[in-house]
Every structure is written in C-alpha cells, then in structure tokens.
Design brief:
Blueprint: H1 4-30, H2 51-54, H3 58-62, H4 76-96, H5 100-122, H6 128-141, H7 149-170, H8 176-214, H9 227-247
Helix pairs in contact: 1-4, 1-5, 4-5, 5-6, 5-8, 5-9, 6-8, 7-8, 8-9
Bound molecules: zinc ion (ZN).
Length: 257
C-alpha cells in the first residue's frame, strides 16, 4: 500500500509546499504578486536569498534561525510552516500510498493549510483559493478513480449550507470566506468526509477555546479563527475518516475507500 521512498518524497515535497504556501499567504496578505518575478528576500536587511538559505528546515537549522547576511532572527513561522508541510505530506503518503486519493488528500490538506495561514494572519479568506480548490475537486472527480461528481457537489453544498446557517443564526464570528472554503474542500472530500471534517474541526476549536477561556487568555467575545481548526479537522479526516466511518458501517465513497 505504501513504500518508504514515496513517503520520503512526499515529506520533502510537503516541506517545500509548506515553505511556498507560507510565502503565497504572506504576499497575498501584503497585496504583492506571488507568481514569479520577485525573489525571496530577508525582510530585515533586504538581501536576496540564495538556494543555501531556502532549503526547508535544514537552512534554518544550519543558520541557527538567523539571517546569513545581517544576523537578524528568522521568524519561527517559516520553519513551522515547513515542518507542518513535511508532516502532512509524510503522513498522507503513508496513509494513501501512491494513488489518486493521495493527490485528493494533498490538495485538500495544503489548500486548507494556505487558507489557515491567511486566516491567522489577517482574518481573511481570499476567494481565489477556495475557488481553485473547488475546480481541482471537479477535475479530480472527473478521473475514473475519482468517485462521483454528484458526491462532490453534495459535499460542497453541505459544507456551504452548514456554515451559512451558523453565520445567519450567530450573526458574527464566522464569515462567508469560511463558507466558500468549506464548499471548495467539500467538492474534493465528498459529503460524508465534509461532515466529518466540520465535526472534528468544531470539536478541535471547542476544546482549544475552552482551554484558552479557562487559562484566561481569551474573553468570551473574542473571535477565534475557524480555518486553522477546519484544517486540523480536514487532516484528521483524511487520515482516519474512512476508519471512523467504517465503525458506523458507513461507506466513505470513492476515492476514499
Ligand atoms: Zn538579513
């Protein structure tokens, strides 16, 4: 089902994707273009970074978290994004092996990850990213092993509708970006795994919020960003969803069988 070279490859790919999406998120929030053109620079001294500065995780360790040129501290979020990406790529490759499901799960996990970064940084979901996920979902579902298009459409509709109801009932806290993102992910996940993602995401968010409230680090009125928890729920679902559903005698549907 899986082989170590595949797991290793996707771990390294995940680290690079984590690094890249961190830049995409940062540039989206800053309103600068991220497609080609400008090279990565040290935000402190402006030195253009070479490949030796950009190897995921390793560069940070070799440089001991400091810029080679000015000695300024490199923000931990860079290496955190790389470690998160490596972990997601590795465990998803371990779970799914080289398969269509692996590609579905990578698009879902890294799509949610990118939106979690912009949500954390700016409290904002850029419409283009959920839209891109939805289009990926449609394309993937047209593949012979991709399951039914209808399952994806139900997933998108269910994801959007549930968040929409919460927005309308609560009148705050969540935004329409959360609804479009859940729709985009739902297109890839299908309706059963979408419901499980929302359930696990809300559970994770609830546990985290109660812990922060108890520790006095959060006031009752503070808004907690949803997408990081949606991402946690999504990754847990991609890893354990089919197994959880099997306990309930529910078929997850293709490509998640
Ligand atoms: Zn520097």
């Amino acid at each position: 089902m899986n082989s170590w070279p595949v797991v290793l490859f996707f771990t390294l790919l995940g680290a690079s994707l984590g690094s890249f999406l961190n830049v995409v998120a940062g540039r989206s929030v800053a309103g600068t273009p991220w497609w080609g053109g400008s090279r990565s620079q040290c935000p402190r001294c402006g030195a253009v970074l070479g490949w030796r500065d950009l190897v995921p995780v390793l560069s940070w360790m070799v440089l001991r978290g400091r810029c080679r040129y000015c000695g300024g501290r490199i923000a931990f979020r860079y290496v955190a994004a790389e470690i998160c990406g490596a972990a997601m790529g590795g465990v998803l490759a371990w779970r799914w092996g080289l398969s269509v499901a692996l590609f579905f799960s990578m698009v879902t996990a890294f799509g949610l990850f990118l939106n979690a970064l912009t949500d954390l940084e700016e409290g904002y979901i850029f419409d283009i990213f959920p839209l891109a996920m939805g289009i990926c979902g449609i394309v993937l579902r047209l593949l012979p092993e991709g399951g039914s298009l209808l399952d994806g459409l139900y997933g998108a509709a269910a994801g959007f509708a549930i968040i929409a109801v919460i927005i309308l009932l609560s009148g705050g806290g969540m935004g329409w970006g959360d609804a479009t993102l859940t729709a985009g992910a739902g297109m890839i996940l299908g309706w059963k795994l979408t419901l499980l993602t929302l359930y696990l995401g809300f559970m994770a968010g609830g546990v985290f919020s109660v812990a922060l409230l108890a520790a006095g680090k959060l006031r009752r009125k503070d808004a907690v960003p949803l997408v990081p928890f949606l991402a946690v729920g999504g990754v847990l679902t991609l890893l354990f969803g089919p197994w959880i559903l099997s306990l309930l005698n529910v078929d997850p549907g293709q490509p998640w069988r």
